[in-house]
Amino acid sequence: MLNLALIIVLSYLVGSIPTSIIVGRAVKGIDIRNYGSGNPGGTNVIRVVGLGWGIFVILFDAFKGFFATAFISKWFYHGEIATILNFTTVQIIAGCFSVIGHVWTVFAGFKGGKGVSTSAGMLLGIAPFDLLIALLVFVFIVASTRYVSLGSIVSAILFPGIIFLTEKIFGVKHSDFMTLLIFGSAIAILIVYRHKSNIKRLLSGTENKLSFGRK
């Protein structure tokens, strides 16, 4: 199972690239974890560094998840692993480990972001239609409330249900429905868990709304 081990390790390392920390240091000479919300993610980069750089971080973090599912899994899907696991399962494993790498990055003391963008990139490579629906929910909530955390939490909670509805009601066939549903639920739980401090602030009315820093 050497190929599976390579997929897991490489996906984790790609996911571990601390994009927001690199951008914060390169653009402003700061550690983004010491400013704004303290979270090393794209939303905090928007607040502290600027809109353009924040969008770059969000897109790159998403690309990490997509790269793992679309490329790393494909490169090593041969030999013994292909006789044991189907390709979609291997994609899901690769994507999940890219998310784990983002959340617990080896390059920043195992303290990373909350995994939303990387999870979105992962799902883009596996379930793009379901992701589109979740993104529409996210955009609507953020546009209405300016709480990025609320949009992330609600979208994560709804995602397993979206997978179920598109498969059972709308007839969208997923290559490995049950595996996707299980891992989609696990990722949703992880995202909600990573937002536990945001949930407390939302309930107390002290959560930061989306604002834009200057370049």
β-sheet strand percentage:
under 5%
- Detail the poorly predicted runs: none
What oligomeric state is this?
A: single chain
Overall mean confidence score, pLDDT: 94
Total number of distinct structural domains: 1
Global structural class: mainly alpha
**Beta strand count:** 0
Terminal residue distance = 47 Å
The ordered H/E elements are HHHHHHHHHHH
CA gyration radius, whole angstroms: 17 Å
The shape, in one word, is: globular
Number of helices: 11
Roughly how much helix do the residues carry, as a percent range?
over 70%
Biggest sheet architecture: none
Note the topology.
Blueprint: H1 2-15, H2 19-28, H3 42-48, H4 51-75, H5 80-84, H6 87-103, H7 116-124, H8 128-145, H9 148-168, H10 177-194, H11 196-204
Observed structural traits:
11 helices; globular; 215 residues; mainly alpha
